[in-house]
Write a structure and sequence with these properties.
Blueprint (H helix, E strand, L loop, with lengths): L22 H35 L5 H36 L2 H18 L6 H29 L5 H10 L1 H15 L4 H6 L6 H8 L4 H4 L12 H6 L1 H25 L2 H11 L4 H34 L1 H21 L4 H16 L1 H8 L9 H29 L4 H8 L3 H8 L11 H6 L1
Helix pairs in contact: 1-2, 1-3, 1-4, 1-5, 1-6, 1-8, 2-3, 2-4, 2-17, 3-4, 3-8, 4-17, 5-13, 5-16, 6-13, 11-15, 11-17, 11-19, 12-13, 12-15, 13-14, 13-15, 13-16, 14-15, 14-16, 14-18, 14-19
Amino acid sequence: MKLVTPTALSPAASSRWYRGVSRYQWLVLVIASAGWVFDVYEGQIYNTTRAYLLDEMISADSPTEKQAAVLRVGDAFLGIFLAGGMVGGVLFGALGDRWGRKPAMMLTILMYSLFSGLTYFATSLWQVGVLRFLVSMGIGGEWAVAAALVADVFPRHARAQASSVFQASSTLGTWMATLVALAIGSQWRFGYLVGVLPAVLVLWVRSRLEEPAAWKQLDSGPPRKKGSLIDLFSDVQWRGRAIGGILLAAVGLATFWGVTVAGQNLAEDFARRGGADPAAAKSMGTFAYGLVQATGGGIGLLAFGPVCQAIGRKRAFILVHLLGMAIVPFACYVPNTYTQLLFILPFYGAFTLAVHAGYAVYFPELFPTRLRALGSSVCFNGGRIIAAVMLPLSGYVKQQLSPNLPLALSLLSLTFLLGLVVIAFMPETKGQLLPEEESSS
């Protein structure tokens, strides 16, 4: 099968980004997106079922003590999940650069699907914690390899839009997790059993994917280490970009877990104030977050590609950080009813989530082919560690200001301002060759 390198088409080859994209490049985007869809499902199924999971696993002397324990353990599991993503991201990102994108992607998909399925049989909190860590290792690794693969294969003029489509496919994963959660109710174990299905995707990856031409060419040139963490951080250029990427991702991940996901709690709060009983309010919150808000989030992710292609990567990051900070207090204080909130939640999802498409677009453009999967992974998953540290702070703010959730979320949305500081020190990559192409031209 003939491969098309990223430089095969000039940026000005067509005013429409998808012109000149080959069938194989579309296939790569579909496969990468399918892996990411199930990635997100594995993460979101915990968010949509954890109330039932933790209620079954945790026993306490009083309802108040149990509620406190559920909140404490729930945040601890999120921290475990973020840490696992970092470990898996570095490990499989390095393997993706050394062994190739194809075997690394196969391993990560098998890992997160297998350990998700085993969660069905968990009988204690420590078992759930270990399995969530292992699932997140696969998730963290798969994103890095898939994002690097899309950047490797797509031509320069289409790279940003293709990467945004890849990232936006996460919406399908959120929809799947929401619909499954609504269907199974308190039978949370079945949600994790469904997580075994992505293992079938490995057969497709094995039969259809080929290694990118740029990665194959590494062996024909001067001998250079591939996927080396030492090389990544010993070179001042790559080190600076990696550290900047980590901090940039930390802002987005911290706001995702502290603000974006809390859209579900905000909707529940509005539903309860409107007279809904606790069970109905929980379902209404799940629907509002997993379908209404997630749809807006998908639109925001799709929009990031054209925006950053039009105004540049840095200006696009600045714009979405400012919009994210502005929409949170608007959603918290402007609507008076649950129904009114539903009209605002798509914008809440779009503006707080759009920045994540920037990571898929931007991070692979910062590093050469031999370090692309590892560098992208270190940026995205390194941000998970900082975000994990911020989770207790987020929980503390919400607890201290309880029951004033709107005020807590509005204060937490100020985290977006930190992204403006970070992006000021990062390079612009719009319309530029990838680092390795640059050095060989």
